[in-house]
């Protein structure tokens, strides 16, 4: 039976997460449908149609779906569910919000943050902040999964899927009031090839300008530890860790971050890890490929100069 | 307004767990246990709502072995009025937990149910959402601010890319994010007082819920270990390594 993938988007563009979830779906089967639910999001559907491996795109375009509220989105997916054996979404804030509701309505379990597909019913997922990997088998007739996007490569373009409109509109009791999104010129944290992250050692929000300069010299995204977020240095959506973003870039530069279990949970699958910390005992050095014991206030400007040279 | 707060006993956040030699699960024997940090934030938020005059009663509930009573007492020492313990030695999936909590809600009729957004052991991030689905309540997950406005709840949520504010009619479900509040410490007099607060014990059978097994745990393995890296002496050396050895810049 077919696989349904919930598209991740902001009504204007399809997020790369969707292409990564499609890769996970390809490991399960070949009949892959993508649901684009939103408002005035025809462009998003068109982008989903181009994804390689996608055989059909379902477009539910209505004001009720604009804010991607779990309440009505879950009911919409429930309507479609009889045709699907697998329902997937990225383990993003929308996916994590919505899919457990879908699973409960279907009376099946959800398997969260899948990092490996071993078959149609067997999956690997991290538990205990990534300190153990659990291989689990779903005993339900329908499998509802959230996929850790950073564990899969994005599927390429090259597809030409058919488009189908869904007229069903389900209203939510919840009302969307407002949102404030962090505006940044830098790449999105989840999809960046290089991430420069700062921790408590940065000392202040102003000092993050230094990390931003380093990030710009590398074309990198900026991340942060919980300590930096709690201290108000940077907004919380930059947090990398068990409860923030889970990332796996080619290069992760941790600056002034000690390396608590909860932070490591979010970045230890990065290909190359660099740690810059003045404490040689900091746990971050145990997982860093390259460590530098140095005062970050001297090392960072030097690093920026060396990269530009 | 009555507030229901489901809580969970988990391995302390600072303990690094190890996988059992037979790969059947993680070894949690003799480890320090604690109230799940997100649940602690949920209890704190309920207590603040009571202090602000918005909540009239706070009921905490936990599902598990007899040991969870320790965390229920902790929650009462923090300000919860009474506790419900649903006793079982079985490991339950979030869906089964949500079903049991739904049965509790049918009796309690709470106007607001506050969950932690995830437990730090299972890392599922499901129970609150599932409970909301089963009870057909609106939900605001990953809350960083909760305000009661008449019959509605204004909740600011932490979403990818920033913050989002939603308005929910009551009864509603909220799941807490780390930045919702800074939980207080229980004082010794409050810990003593909590010992006398009511704690009801129920069996799963008392709730009239039939549970089934949804997921089979096949094995648990340690994550791939990273090979030890090298310590470098200078920034110049670091840049050289990144360019020529790792080839990442």
Order the strands across the largest sheet of chain B as they lie in space. 11-10-9-12-8-1-6-7-13
Shape of chain B: globular
Assembly state (oligomeric): heterodimer
Q: Secondary-structure element order of chain B, as H and E?
A: EEEEEHEHEHEHEEEEHEEEH
What's the number of helices of chain B?
A: 6
Compute the separation of the termini of chain A in Å: 56 Å
> Quick check: average pLDDT of chain A?
97
Q: From the alpha carbons, calculate the radius of gyration of chain B and give it in angstroms.
A: 21 Å
Q: What sequence of helices (H) and strands (E) makes up the elements of chain A?
A: EHEHEHEHEEEEEEEEHEHEHEEH
Number of helices of chain A: 8
Q: What is the number of E strands of chain B?
A: 15
> Strand arrangement, largest sheet of chain A?
5-9-4-1-2-3-10
Structural category of chain A: alpha/beta
Largest interface: A-B, 90 and 80 residues
> Helix proportion of residues of chain B, in percent?
25-40%
Mean pLDDT of chain B: 97
Q: How is the main sheet of chain B built?
A: 9 strands, mixed
Distance between the termini of chain B: 57 Å
How many β strands of chain A by DSSP? 16
Unreliable runs of chain B, pLDDT <50, ≥5 residues? none
Lay out the secondary structure:
The complex is a heterodimer of chains A (309) and B (249).
Chain A: E1 2-6, H1 16-26, E2 32-38, H2 42-49, E3 54-61, H3 70-80, E4 84-90, H4 93-106, E5 110-114, E6 116-117, E7 122-127, E8 132-138, E9 143-147, E10 162-165, E11 175-181, E12 194-198, H5 208-218, E13 221-224, H6 226-230, E14 251-255, H7 261-267, E15 272-277, E16 290-293, H8 296-308
Parallel strand pairs in A: 1-2, 1-4, 2-3, 3-10, 4-9, 5-9, 12-13, 12-14, 14-15, 15-16
Antiparallel strand pairs in A: 6-7, 7-8
Chain B: E1 2-6, E2 9-11, E3 18-19, E4 26-27, E5 33-35, H1 37-51, E6 57-64, H2 68-78, E7 82-87, H3 94-108, E8 112-116, H4 127-135, E9 139-149, E10 152-159, E11 162-169, E12 172-176, H5 188-194, E13 199-203, E14 215-221, E15 230-232, H6 235-245
Helix pairs in contact in B: 2-5, 3-4
């Amino acid at each position: 039976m077919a696989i349904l993938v919930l598209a991740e988007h902001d009504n204007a563009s399809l997020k790369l997460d969707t292409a990564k979830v499609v890769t996970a779906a390809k490991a399960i089967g070949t009949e892959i449908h993508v649901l684009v639910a939103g408002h005035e999001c025809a462009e998003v559907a068109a982008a989903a149609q181009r994804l390689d491996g996608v055989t059909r795109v379902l477009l539910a375009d209505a004001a009720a779906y604009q804010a991607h509220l779990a309440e009505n989105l879950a009911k919409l997916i429930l309507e479609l569910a009889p045709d699907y054996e697998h329902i997937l979404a990225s383990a993003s804030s929308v996916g994590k919000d919505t899919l457990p509701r879908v699973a409960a309505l279907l009376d099946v379990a959800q398997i969260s943050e899948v990092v490996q597909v071993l078959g149609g019913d067997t999956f690997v997922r991290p538990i205990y902040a990534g300190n153990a990997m659990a291989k689990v088998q779903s005993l339900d007739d329908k499998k509802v999964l959230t996929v850790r996007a950073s564990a899969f490569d994005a599927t390429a373009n090259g597809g030409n899927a058919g488009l189908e409109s869904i007229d069903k509109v389900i209203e939510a009791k919840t009302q969307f009031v407002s949102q404030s999104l962090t505006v940044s010129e830098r790449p999105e944290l989840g999809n960046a090839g290089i991430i420069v992250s700062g921790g408590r050692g940065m000392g202040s929000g102003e000092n993050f300008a230094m990390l931003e300069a380093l990030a710009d010299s590398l074309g990198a995204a900026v991340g942060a530890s919980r300590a930096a977020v709690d201290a108000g240095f940077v907004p919380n959506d930059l947090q990398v860790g068990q409860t923030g973003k889970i990332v796996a870039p080619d290069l992760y530069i941790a600056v002034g971050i000690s390396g608590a279990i909860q932070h490591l949970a979010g970045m230890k699958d990065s290909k190359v890890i660099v740690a810059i910390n003045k404490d040689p005992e900091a746990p971050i050095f145990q997982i860093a490929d390259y460590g530098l014991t140095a005062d970050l206030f001297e090392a960072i400007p030097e690093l920026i100069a060396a990269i530009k040279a | 307004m009555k507030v229901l707060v489901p809580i969970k006993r988990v391995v302390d956040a600072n303990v690094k767990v190890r996988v059992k030699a037979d790969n059947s699960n993680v070894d949690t024997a003799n480890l320090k246990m604690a109230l799940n940090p997100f649940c602690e934030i949920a209890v704190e938020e309920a207590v603040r709502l009571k202090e602000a005059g918005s909540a009239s009663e706070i009921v905490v509930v936990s599902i598990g072995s007899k040991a969870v009573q320790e965390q229920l007492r902790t929650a009462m020492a923090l300000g919860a009025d009474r506790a419900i313990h649903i006793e079982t030695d079985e490991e339950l999936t979030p869906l089964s937990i949500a079903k049991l909590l739904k049965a509790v809600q049918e009796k309690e009729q709470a106007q607001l149910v506050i969950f932690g957004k995830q437990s730090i052991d299972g890392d599922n991030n499901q129970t609150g959402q599932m409970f909301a689905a089963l009870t057909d309540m609106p939900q605001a997950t990953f809350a960083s601010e909760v305000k009661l406005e008449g019959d509605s709840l204004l909740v600011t949520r932490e979403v990818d890319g920033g913050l989002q504010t939603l308005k929910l009619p009551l009864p509603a479900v909220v799941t807490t994010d780390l930045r919702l509040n800074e939980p207080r410490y229980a004082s010794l007099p409050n810990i003593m007082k909590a010992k006398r607060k009511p704690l009801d014990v129920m069996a799963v059978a008392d709730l009239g819920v039939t549970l089934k097994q949804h997921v089979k745990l096949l094995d648990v393995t340690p994550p791939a270990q990273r090979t030890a890296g090298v310590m470098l002496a200078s920034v110049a050396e670091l840049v050289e390594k990144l360019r020529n050895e790792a080839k990442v810049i």
